[in-house]
Structures are given as structure tokens and as C-alpha cells.
Amino acid sequence: MASNKKHLTPTPSATGIYAHIVGWGMAVPENIMTNDDMASIVETNDEWIHSRTGIRERRIASEKESTATLGYRAAQRALEVADILPVDIDLIIVATSTPEHIFPSTASLIQDWLGASKAGGFDLSAACSGFVYALNMAAQSIKSGSIQTAVVIGAETMSRVLDWQDRGTCILFGDGAGAVVLRASTQQGGILSSVLRSDGGGADLLCIPTNNVRDLNGHKVQKMFMVGSEVFKFATRVVNQSIREAVDLAGIQLEDIDLIVPHQANMRILQSAARKLKIDLDRFMSNVDRYGNTSAASIPIALCEAVEQGRIHDNDYLAFVGFGGGLSWASMVLQWGVPEPEQHTTRLGQQRRQLSYTLARWRNRINKVRRNVSQFFNRIRPNAGRIFRLQRKIEQDEIL
Ligand code: COA
What we know:
This protein is of the alpha/beta class. It folds into 2 domains: 15-345, Peroxisomal Thiolase, Chain A, domain 1 (3-Layer(aba) Sandwich), CATH 3.40.47.10; 346-400. It contains 10 helices and 13 strands. It has helices at 35-39, 46-53, 67-82, 106-114, 130-143, 228-250, 267-277, 288-291, 298-308, 347-399, and strands at 18-27, 32-34, 57-59, 91-95, 120-124, 149-157, 175-185, 190-198, 206-207, 225-226, 257-262, 317-324, 328-335. The strands form 4 sheets. A 5-stranded mixed beta sheet has the order 1-7-6-4-5, with helices on both faces. Strand 12 (317-324) and strand 13 (328-335) form a beta hairpin. Residues 44, 48-49, 52-53, 128, 167-168, 171-172, 226, 228-229, 231-232, 235, 265-266, 293, 323-324 line the site of coenzyme A.
């Protein structure tokens, strides 16, 4: 992978191990909700939404879909591209603000469905910055030498936590998932730098309460709320600053960045960032018009589409930038380049992955049956003991 970059002196990894993205995949619900559809739910219109945000439509999960099922499908596709078996995964991180449960983690569910029997898994909560946070955690584990392979997923079903009567928020968000496979390699490049930041002073500007939070009438409140104008100001301030910091840390220069893959919140935020960074808007990947804001899933979904559209080439420098609830924000610089042996999906690999998913389904079912049977015997055993003791007593009485 020879490079012809002008300013190519990226900071080397201290251990000589690099963390490369070797697989990517996305999954979005089929159900499309356009701005016109939205106008039948709240008082709004296509012109207002599009001119303020750039959004035309978003995807909404069906009853059968969930954060875990979308994340699972995205992870399967990423494993396919990477041609890696589930059993080779060491770690699964799911960045999400809409997990299936508080616990078990969505990552644990996906680990089980994949049959990733040697993987640890956890969910990470950093709102719309979550994917960059999670990618940084996985990359650090790989670069330290403690693991080889990680699957990092951003997955959301925002439609389940929106207040569908609040036109200031419900028009902005959508559902979906994206995933990448991160793998250790001695080949230079991959994740070069990360900048993670948080300002809890803005916690009340963008929030999804848990079901412990009640309003003054004692009713549970579990809907998103947001102070849009303040979040807008925060986002336009931090995006440009944190990209600059990540670029400095990576040891390259801003003009070396070939493509910025930002969190897809609002086209106007991207326009402002482009102006402040003095970078052409066409060096920002954007698909907010078709998916809206999918929170932690937006960067990996945009990354997948950028690859599909041929906008990313070997040795390109990319910047990811996320921002959102916390308040939190995060930037990352990486050099793209899939190490050679990983580049072709083998038929055998495909079959072994399918087998792993099938076996995982069966193992899951058999375990459930085994647990039910054991619970059944646990329930009847005390009675069985009582009957046995009674029988013995009768026999003894007869003997006496
Ligand atoms: N349709 C039509 N009118 C709407 C509307 C909608 N969906 N939502 C709000 N309005 C109205 C308001 O009621 C207000 O009317 P008024 O002047 O009669 O009171 C007017 O439009 C302006 O509202 P305002 O909230 O000031 O609009 P805005 O220009 O700030 O745009 C956002 C609102 C939400 C689009 C904008 O603040 C934003 O994008 N913020 C960032 C949000 C974000 O990206 N969050 C996620 C970060 S991860």
C-alpha cells in the first residue's frame, strides 16, 4: 500500500500494531416515512423540514424490528465483507441510545445470534457520538495487543423514544444500524487518532430519560426532549474544533483529509462546519436527506454508502465526527486501506458463517428448552420430596 500523500507523517502506533476497518455493513428498515407522511402526524410540511434540516425522508422500524435485529443484520454484512467467522470475534460493542433493555446489553443479544462464542460484549452510551467513542475503545484494545478482532455497531430505533406530538424533534430522527469489523494488523494506517469530549453541563439540552423519571403527576416520562437552537449552536462550535484536534493528533494536515464522514444530524450543521474548516461541502459525506438523524448509527451508515459510491480509496485519510446528547462530541482520523488477505470473501467462509448463525439459533432454542425443563423439575421436586417422605412415613407406620 504505497502512498503518495503530500504530508504523510502520521503518528506511528507505539506497539507497532494498527487497527484497520476490514468490513462494513448497514441495515435500515424498509418502511419509509416521507416529510409529507410526517405532515399527517404533526403540523409541519416538506418545505419547512427540508429547508431547516435537509431531511426528505427517514426509515421507521416495523414491529418485528428492533435495535438488536438491525444491529445483527448490519454486523452480518460487515462480517461478510471482512470474510471473518463469528468465532474469531473478541469483542462486540454496540453504541446505542435505544437499547433493547438496560441489561442485558444489545451487544450480548447480537453476540448470541452471531454465535460469537469467544466474544465479550457491551453497550456504550454516548448518544450521537457513540459510534466514534466505541470505535476508539475497540481500536485501543487492538493496538494494545489485548484483542485481535472487534465488531463495532451503531444501532438505533429512535422512533420508539420520540415524542410524536413534538414537531421540533420527531421530524429529525430515523431508525437504522451500521457496523464495522476492526482487525489488528502490522500494516501502518487504520485508526490514527481520536478526540473524545463531554460537557454534562448541557445534559438538559438533549435527553432521553429512563423509565425511572416521572413528571409532576407521577406519570412515567420516557420521551426525547431537546432544546434545538442550543444544540444547533453547540454542534456548529464543536465539529470544526474537534476535527482540527484529531487531525493534529494524527500528525497530518487538514488538506490531507479526503472525506469527512460526519454524524448526519442536519445539513445546515455540515454547511457551517465546511465554512469554518474552509473545506468544500462535497468533501463531507451526507445522506441525511434519506435517513434523517439515526444517532449512533448515522456515521457507519454514511461510511457504508460512501464506500458503495466509490468515494473512498486506499490510503485516503478520513475524519469521523459525532456530536449529541451528553453533551458529547468525538472526532477520529483514520487512513483507509484493507490489508490484503482480508479482501476477498470466500465461499467457504460464507458457508461457515451461515452455519454459525444456524447453530446459534438452535443452541439458543435448546438452551431455552433445557432451562424450562429444569425449572419444571425444580417446581415439582419439592412436592416429589414431600410425597416420598409421606409414603415412607405411611410405610413406617404400617411396620409399627
Ligand atoms: N414544522 C413547522 N414549523 C416548525 C416545526 C416543524 N417541524 N418545528 C418548529 N417549528 C416552528 C416553531 O414552532 C417556530 O414557530 P414560531 O416562530 O411561530 O414560534 C418556528 O418554527 C421556528 O422554530 P425554531 O425552533 O426556532 O426553529 P429552528 O430554525 O431553530 O429549527 C431545528 C429547529 C430543530 C431544525 C434546529 O434548531 C436544529 O436543527 N437544531 C439542532 C438539532 C439537532 O440536530 N439535534 C440532534 C443533534 S445530535
